[in-house]
Amino acid sequence: MKRRDFIKSGALTLASLEMGGIISLSPNTLHANAFEIREPKTNVALNIKTITKVPSVCLNCSTVCGMNVLVHEGKVLGVEGNPLDPNTQGKLCAKAHGGVSAIDYPERLVYPMKRVGRRGEGLWQRISMDEAYEMIASRIQKSIDAGHPERVVFHAGRNRIGDITGRFMDAIGSPVVLNHRALCSSNKRAANYASIGDTDWETVDAEHCTYFLNFGSNFFEAHQGGFPLLARFAKAKRNGAKLITFDVRLSNTAGRSDEWFAPFPSSEGAIALAMAHVIVANNLHDKTFLKTWTNVTLETLEAFLKPYTPEFATKESGLSASDITRLALEFAKASPRCAAFTNRGSQAHQNGFNNDRAVILLNAVVGSIGKKGGYAFGGSKSLGEASFPMPKPVPPKVKFSTDLEDPKLYPLANRWQKMKVSQLVFEKIKNKTQAVDVYLSYTISAPQTWPEGPSVTVDALKDEEVIPFHACSDVVYSEMAHYADLLLPDATYFERYAIEGRNANELIPYFVLRQPAIRPPYACEDFADTLIKVAKRLHEPVKKYFAFENYEEFINLRPPLNGTFIPKQEQRLNSISLKLCTTTRCGLIPKQPKK
Amino acid sequence: MQYRMIVDTNQCVGCHACEVSCKQEFGAPLGLFRTMTLYMDMRSFPKVKREFLPIMCTQCEDASCQKACKKDAIYEEHGIVKIDEKKCDGCGDCVKACSLGAIYVNPLSHLAEKCNLCAHRLEIGQKAACEVTCVSEAIRIIDLSKGALTSQGRGFTMRASDKPRTVHIGANPLMKEKLQSGKPFSPYNYEISNWARRGV
Question: Is the ipTM of this structure higher than 0.85?
Fold first, then answer.
């Protein structure tokens, strides 16, 4: 028999692949015709009276909205908003509803598989999970034994299980945890860090705000955390709030704004500074706020703003000086119930860091920070670790760092969080700046998302000399999976746990629990559980930090500290008694208001 | 009971959540929708205003779909125009008769389907799938026996003879240029990403 005779082609056959069978996959070809394979099935409408509602948390984007998963006879039929979720209060976006398709997506990975052809050729053989654990564990053990744990690299996007991935990397002694931050929110977070000292998402007390000065954010459609903001904006709008949008593009937000301005790209900072100039020149600045809460004197601020006249901003942005002056005065007169914000707007461009600092400054100048209806800062996420202590023994933090995740030289070196330079990771790996033994990838599809994805990223991923072993956990056969040596079938966010926190739009920190609504199908396994099983195969001292059965037990060992609502154990964690959750608050762990 | 839907286009933010939650509710097949949100940009740069129109079956009185059905499968109950699945044979006469294009024939079940105000939810005191998820509260379904219809707004019609029960507030009549009578809401018939006025 020729080899091609028993190579099954296409993901339609993925679930029917037998142990040891070989399959050919490609991330660029659609293997399954959705019309043909999707039969009429049961739906929410037919089961509305008997459907089980499992409170959990969406993860179709990182806004992590609370939701009820609608389950009928072990199948997820849909989702609905959870009215108990303080951020979204029972509403969900289109994406959240669509996310259900991930569960029975025709091309879902359902078995662990190892590469049998050349890397990137797409030939895979089904193996057992035990073989998969062993493949990873033996290689990691080798790196540890050789005294080079830093050659084990973990690369993830928004994985939302940092508690266990961080513990794993700490336990094996590798500091090399890579992400995608510099391609996402670095400018914004750095601007927040430099101005306010925190790096979390910015929050607006939108419901009570009367004047929104929006620098490039498209919160009607795409803004991080946009949906809860949109809900509150809609209320404020009904009460007569005004929305001004600066955006180079006519987004839905721009198209629905009271006024839309299209400045030259990356000139938002100039506009904000000119507005601050006008406000100070007209003596409308909040002197008490500036004296109490900032580390500059009024004279310094005045001198700093002096050159940034509306005429200067006109030259930079193309907006008229009279518009800039008028908006500045309107904004100041609306204070403190006004907010200037950017989210991921103006930061995602040249000079984004300084543009965003200028916008934050505008809030300080009118003193709207921390006031009702003003610019707020609600990073409940930063309280996560303290509110849910890690099970002991906790592995010590790794004391050294490498140039890969923490560059040491100007201009990339800084004292902020690690990995501000993700755009350079593949360049460095390709040029052998640091040796890599084991590359673990999760929730990241770098060939698609890196600017030079199809070139440098793929070059590095394909090169077995620079990345000798690549294990990838994914829900579907992604571009990243295509360049792996070992594929681990991940659980979707409907099938796993996590303790979630987000910036609190109600301005009271809170936490939510993601819990499985169904069990992962076939051999699918939460990557957190895979890591725990791998860790158990490693020698001491790694093993001792993983003295729990699985991630469910790990979460169970992290009970909320005092002041938090503790749901009954069996309601919170036992998937068998999930039905009990329908009438309790078990999906939500609200925190007491900060004193 | 007499149910009425009120759609406030001034509140709509164009997020499409109603469409997807509706598809989820009924397991609608890929590419077919019971509700759709049209976009249109009015005026010119830089004074552009983007308008939205969530549109679905407007539950007409003396509905043309009802008249067109030779199988007597379409009837009215509590202000809702319903399709009797036992009588429907999927011939598609109703699809062609609807001036909004609010009906499609499910290619898998061969039954005509359209918005029925989530009658199964209203029966047990729940809100419709679109209403419950709408972030800007642009969609409401009321029971006339419990509250009066808003004095604002009016029925959105393609033909003078149509008598919709649903009330649209602030709907732009120019959106009619975009609707295709007799053709279902589907990417095959519509470019929902086209913001310009048709033919402008």
Answer: yes
